Amino acid sequence: MCGVICGVTTTVIGVVLVIVSTVLTFVFVPGVIEDLILNEVVLLDDTEQMERFQEIPFPLNFTIRFFNISNTEEVLAGGVPDLVEVGPYIYKSYQSREVESKEDDTISYRYMERLEFDAESSYPYTEDDVVTIVNPPYHLILQVAEKSFPDLMGIINSAMTGVFGRYSNPIADVKVRDLLLDGIRFCENPGLIASIVCSQIRTIGATSNNLVVQEDGSIIFALLISRIQPSSVYKVHRGINNPEDLGRIISLNETSRFYYWVDEEEGKPSVCNMINGTDSSIYNPFVDITKSLFAINTDICRSVELRYQYDIDYEGIPGYRFSANEWFLDNDDGCFCLNLTSGITREDGCLLRGAAELYSCVGGPMVLSYPHFLYADPIYAKGVKGMNPSVEDHRILLDIEPNTGTVLRGAKRAQFNIFLRPIISITATENFNSTLTPIVWLQESVLLPEEYVDQLKNRMLMPLNLVSILLPIVIALCSVVVVVGVVIFVRAKLLNKSPSMTTTT
Question: Which residues contact 273 (CB under 8 A, 6 or more apart)?
Answer without folding.
Answer: 257, 258, 259, 260, 261, 263, 335
